[in-house]
Design a protein that fits this description.
The protein has helices at about 5-20, 35-50, 80-90, 110-115, 145-155, 165-175, 190-200, 205-210, 215-230, 245-250, 300-305, 325-335, and strands at about 20-25, 50-55, 75, 95, 120-125, 135-140, 230-235, 240-245, 275-280, 285-295, 310, 315-320. It is an alpha/beta fold. The structure holds guanosine-5'-monophosphate and manganese (II) ion.
Amino acid sequence: MSPLLSTADLLQFMTLIRDSRHVAICGHRGPDGDAMGSALAWSAYLQGLGKQVSVVMPTPPPDFLRWLPGSKQVVIYQDNPTLTASIMAEADLICCLDFNALSRLQDLQHLVAASKAKRLIIDHHLNPDTEGISFLVSRPQMCSTCEVIFRLIHQLGGFDDMTPQTATCIYTGMMTDTGGFTYNSNDPEVYEIISLLLTKGIDKDRIYRQVFHVFSIDRLRLQGFILSEKLQFFEKGRASVFTLTREEMKRFRYVRGDLEGFVNLPLQVRGLSLSISLREDTEKDVIRCSLRSVGSFPCNKMAEQFFHGGGHLNASGGELPFPLEEALKTAERAIEAFRDLL
Ligand code: 5GP
Ligand code: MN
């Protein structure tokens, strides 16, 4: 496996770790399998070095990730602001995993920005914001932050001591960020890593079922409702949009995570390049926007220009501060503006 860090960087990184005692690890709002998996794996590694480690997420993970080993110890800022504040105040190192800009921490960003701790980023998103950062490990070509974390632990000599629990966390993030290895996963070394993880005794088939096959009947019916009643197509079937109101979510007894993956469904249509989902946020008065594409269509450019967001080429998101009908008009304008790339 090719090394993640140059020798000089490795030495600098090791010094940073050696000089820290209280480490806080955070991931982005609405933590997904990659944010949770990488944070828990990195936490386990640092704990093995004798560090005092806390994992903090701005908001809770979806129910289908609660089984991840260690997830019960994760502090949720939204539920525990006081505890979070003391963790951030005590930390001498804050590791920002799976996000490229503090704004993705929402309200938690202020505590992180105010902390005197050194800060490092370990991530695979484009264009990391390096202001105030002591060390950056940014690998946009990698499938997931979990892949970056694996390589890091491996290079630091921590593979032999890696537990099956940690291997499970890493595999989960690699699997979820690649849609079960159906995109962003052509690098042969990804499979070298998987084979090393399998030597730890992980049950990858079970992990798949625990993440992808644990939906409620309500969720399945919500999926049917969206596909039959809400999905609209544009530009001769090359783009699609669906919207979802809070009222509709309530009707299908929505719980956090129920919408995960729906935005990918329209990509199953032949010739479709772009899928957009627009839904009323359940906590704030904003519209959460998700964009997915196949091929070279740049979701991130569209998200930056039209949805106050960003992300990867094929998966981006953003937020619009106005009603759903207007958000739909924005999406239509965005599709119109990008029609030549569809
Ligand atoms: P999702 O559609 O799953 O919420 O987000 C997909 C990807 O888009 C994320 O992994 C992240 O890279 C990016 N993304 C989502 N929401 C935002 C946002 O509000 N701002 C930025 N800059 N990127 C976002
Ligand atoms: Mn990720």
